[in-house]
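Provenance and format

Records in this collection were gathered into a single text stream. Each protein contributes a sequence line and a token line. The two records reproduced below are adjacent in the stream.
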Amino acid sequence: MENSSIENSTGAMRVKAEFNPAKNETVDQIKNASAELINQLDNVKWFKTLLNESNEKLKALLKAESEKEGNSDERMRQLTLSARATLQVDGLANALEQHGDSLQTEVETACMYAVKACFTK
């Protein structure tokens, strides 16, 4: 395995990046690219935590702004649209987290078949 940034990572472990008894360069490239993608998907969990924290702060600010007296109808409409968008952010973050493991498994499967193809005539 050539890419030291993925050694001992979740992705490297899942694709068995170190296992290449034939020392095939294409196999190393496939496994490194697959491990990198799995690692990026693994980062979704960390990203979701940050996203949720920031989104909760935004929701609190929007709530405080909407409760101020003297808001025009147009300002309230804009604040409502913004609040609705924060709900969309919640939904997308949850979907990413929910499907992250399945996506990692699909990458792992794609890697396995790509490696097999390297040795199939």
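Adjacent record:
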Amino acid sequence: MQLLVKCIYFVYRKMIETKQRVEGLISIIIPCYKAENFLLNILNDVRQQKYDKWELLIVSNGEGQAPQLRIANKFAEDNKNVQVLVLHESGAGNARNKGMEMAIGEWFTFLDADDRIDSDHLQKYMDAVESASIKPDIVIGGFYLEQKRNGGVCMVDIPKYEKKDFVLNCSEMLRASSCNKLYRADFVGAYRFNVLYSMREDAVFNSMLILNTDNILTIPISGYHYILCDVENASSKYHATYEESLMEYNSIQLQMFQRLGVSDETIKEWQEKHFFYDSFGLARNLFKKGSHLSVSQQRGDIKRMIYQNPLHKSCLRWYPWGRQTLLDKMWIVCLRIESSLFVVFVLRIQYWVKNHFFTIFMKLWPLLSK
């Protein structure tokens, strides 16, 4: 059976490698899930691109597709270089994989349906490609981070890094995100997103690609606007495979450090710094919407994932009390006390307040405003 699977994969990879690509064409892939309220904005942004050699693949996936499909199909009728693909399976990784299979461009890029791009977004990438002495495998650009609630905008830019500096110093958001990159299709080949992961699948995908090339080009800022909305998204739900995806991501990072000749001391520092937020993320995941774990299961997972890891103490030396946010201070206390019952108590209160505060406030507001 294993031999049959390997043979099928070998044939599939050869088909991908010999696929005829259209030179200079960018295949734009947009996964859509319940995106009817904002999809048309990003589609119009694509249509207004100054770089006009592109094809667009809109991949509708999951349940309740009819409203967004009406928008996507109407857009495809008006624009001949647009395809609409329908998947009944949910998941952004699944949708992106389908888009990559159908794409014919020399290059491809991903956009999220609830984000926006400037009219020169693609042009900036292609200008960088044209000016490079060697055709890059991946072009990575900075982007604008926007908070929809208060209108705040933060520019997340990238200096011109060599690979080692990029891996060590660039923010994880820039390395992990799939939306701030232009990929050379022949380099990516048959590599795909792991559909078993519903969280951090893009971090694993991009880390594996970065691990396998030195031909990375960075540009300070692209025209991408990553918009933080208040709508329910993947990060607000429980993910059963979150720990596995995080472990694979960290394993790839360690391989990268070893190939780049990073010192053991620097690697240990990186592990300690990352464990603080990794452990917080693992613990919080146990309490998110969709988790049906009992208190004893939550306590057992917290002990295993966090307190049995020796980094849970050494990581605190990088997080002085006075410089941390209220949530970070709460987690510092949890790591110091070393009580899984205390963590369960604190996080249950946090999520109860988060989920019910607005409702309670609205009920009390008429009394408070008198």
